[in-house]
Protein 1
Amino acid sequence: MARLGILAACAVLLALLGGCASPADRAAMEAGPVVRAQVPKGDSVQITVSGGQATGALDPSSIADADLKAAVEASILKAGLFGSVSRIPADYTLYVRIIELQRPLMGGNFTVKLELAWQLIRVSDQKIMFRTSIRSSHRTTMSESFAAVTRLKMAVEGAVKENIETFLKELSAAQLPD
Amino acid sequence: MNIATLISRTTWVAALCALTLLNTGCAVNRATASSDPTMNWSSIKSVHVAQLPGEDGSTKKLIAEKFRAKGFVVTADPEVAAQPDALVTYVDKWMWDMTMYMIELTIVVRDPKSNFPLAQGNSYHTSLTRKSPAKMVDEVVDNILNTRK
């Protein structure tokens, strides 16, 4: 009976540790369909993302550079801001840097705060066409998910999604210099 | 030990594990830094360290001392910033495990006019590999300055 108790405790502990390796999902970070540019900003853009980190076996939910890049690419295409993404050579390079990702360590409701730095550079003359720093946050409650790992993952994804949407709105409304 | 006691203890262990599962994140150690690809480090000679609201100023003082030791002209709140080349902001997070310790520190070097982040560094060390606040500041600032090209 004592062994049964230890096994049960180990099983729960394994579930806890296994759940830690739960990276933010790229599809869940994509901007919604509400953002739509009236006029494309250019023919092509290539996207470079830095400051992210893959989620390790024991890490809390993180944002991998490749996943954020894929989410930004899909969002830009959906918004119609550029004709194509990731084509080289491209007219523009969009640099996205993860500046700050604040995640709670414990609690019932999880609020994640995120700051991303966005910078659009024209490749031909390396001119900075547009740059902005956007802070976003997303809160998930226990009613959305009972498991802390899932709540944290959802909060990270929500903060990224909101950040991308804000960027697309700002860039869509911006008058780029000649 | 009778069966009732054993079941009771097992239930408590399972309940504690479940509580942990529901209310906590996970353990991790990391140290990262990145900077703007267009950033011109040679133009940055002076920095102003802005104090985090609610912080007692001890972390701010350590950051100011570190940048000063690295050769920058440094001012810090509440001193008046005399047109610095960069503004330094930070966020420190503390945890308790027998004693309080700094679990995470993020330092951001910003354009003083637009507040745009030019470079940033982050260190995160949980209890067993905890570092003193001074060591955390050393690690983050060194990693930021190592991004200089």
Note: Chain B has one domain: 26-145.
Protein 2
Amino acid sequence: MSEKVKVKLFAQISEIAGRKELLLEGETVAEVIDELVKEVPELEDELFKEEQNELSEDIIVLKEGRNINYLNGLQSEVGKGDNISIFPVVGGG
Amino acid sequence: MAKKILRVNMEDLTVKEEEVPEEYENLGGRALTSQIIADEVPPKAHPLGPNNKLVFAPGIVTGTGSPNSGRLSAGGKSPLTGGIKESNAGTPFAKTLAKKGIKAIIVEGKPENKDRYYLLKLNEDESDLVHADEWVGKGLYEAYEELHEEFGENIEITGAGIAAEIGASNAGISYTDPEGMSSRYSGRGGLGAVMASKGLKFIVAEEPKEDRIEIKDEETFNEGRKKLAKALAEHDITKKDGALNSYGTAVLVNIINESGGLPQRNFSEGSDDRSAEVSGEKKAEAVQERGGVRPHKCSPSCIIQCSEIWTKEGGEDPVGVLEYESVWALGPNCGIYDLDTIGELNRACNDLGLDTIEMGNTIAVAMEGGLLDFGDGVKALELMDEIYEKTPLGRILANGVEFTGEAFGVNRVPTVKGQSIPAYDPRSIKGIGVTYATTPMGADHTAGYAIAPEILGVGGDADPFEKEKGELSKNLQRATAAIDSAGYCLFIAFATMDIDEGMEGVVDTVNGVLGTDYSIEDVMAFGANVLKTEREFNRKAGFSKEDDRLPEFMKEEKLPPHNEVFDVPDEELDSVWED
């Protein structure tokens, strides 16, 4: 039984989705993002490369503050109460 | 017409024009200020004594109309670090100097009467030093309004504020923004105090009728300019409606907070949910609701336009931009999560002539020392009044983080070489820690911005927890020294690190202006040479590799939420200086 995780959306991603936070289910980041796209179909083009099941390079996904690229990518496991944060490419200084 | 160097002697109150020596011909910006300081200032000179000098230099391409080329470097021996300092800013003042054909201004000596202040007026064909005593003790917003009334609207201004008048180590140098307000800064390192120590209160530069910009190879320059403009227009961070244009630099608040690297309450934690209240997204909404301005350019050639004009509610009392660093320093780092309080603290810094990063860190250390509670914005604003009134407490605070830490018995003092650490905690983002530790400037994120690959996925990818970051920081520091010398805004690097044509554009424009044939490798070597000059000055001033270290508490205290310490080995830090 998968548990709810908090998905936080930022900057343009949040504007496109029209919301900042969702509670979704899934046992991996991939499953949670699938749920996210079902809930907010407008995000599919933003999050994925065209016609591939790969995340766009223009997206940063953190699980509990760690970029999933340095964990197990989309297959990173998520647990109850975990936070997933999704950003477009941002910069400043 | 050949470019010139203006030598301003504050002892005998003369201004002389000098020819540019051959060895300075291909230098500009940081390369030039650091070289002149290395050549002319004894490394053991007292920063506020007669033998220190203050140098201003526009970049190589500044004034040409190449995109984002409106940068000006200020250099000297820093009262904050005791080492060499270059602090650059984006301001219309930069292009005005460049168009006047001024390669550098060297301010030296000090007047016999230490209570006298002067204004350097750069007219069309001559320069004058006139009395400026009437502006002593006055805030810079009001002073700039009065200077515009007196000298007309067609001027740009550089100024030293009230903090500089008391010789404060955290006094920055202020410049006009496009609206004529005191909101652009060579903030870091106390160069405002160097300026005031020489009795120089303002420089007022009239926009020249005759443009003296020289471009030796127009064709190469124009090709380069187009390549760079194209790269900036394409990259997600720098393009129109991209991250910087839409939300400003404070767009970083959320991602650094979520990454566990946004220091809270004097570097005691790395994230706090309340940080979202002061994010770039929140601020952009508020600016729009209030009738402020966003996007906005800090200087005429900018096409990124990350700046803004923050105001009080109702669009009243403009402050200028609230940058990411300022929002963090005066906000979450002090336990303050309210943009209006941050805006007023930023206004006070701009008005007094203080660096926001150092001031925010100082308030946080004062909070740690029990002078006020974390989160007490009202009391924080009252502390700024102590500086206006030049009280003993105000003087302590205006001298920065280390001085204040000592005064209040605090041992969590976030500094390197006397300069406070900016808005990225190096325990959870280690590459930026290598830059903080090793740059000749004291803790400075802009000196080698490892955040780009570590967090933002720009210019490659690097795990922020990975410790082997010496090579990364070295290359970034070299490239940055070159960009700071060219006169480009560092933010062009977001695009040029990912788009090769953009980098070619940078090199082409420099070659076009100078008539040189530099390659990208030559540019990196140029940057390495600037660093070498700066480090050699610091060595002679008394620094060794033992000073290239982060504060002790960062190696001992774990930073929540990741509970990391700064564990990059000293040998890795020292590798930055190996060829």
Note: The beta strands of chain A are 4-9, 21-25, 59-63, 66-67, 83-88.
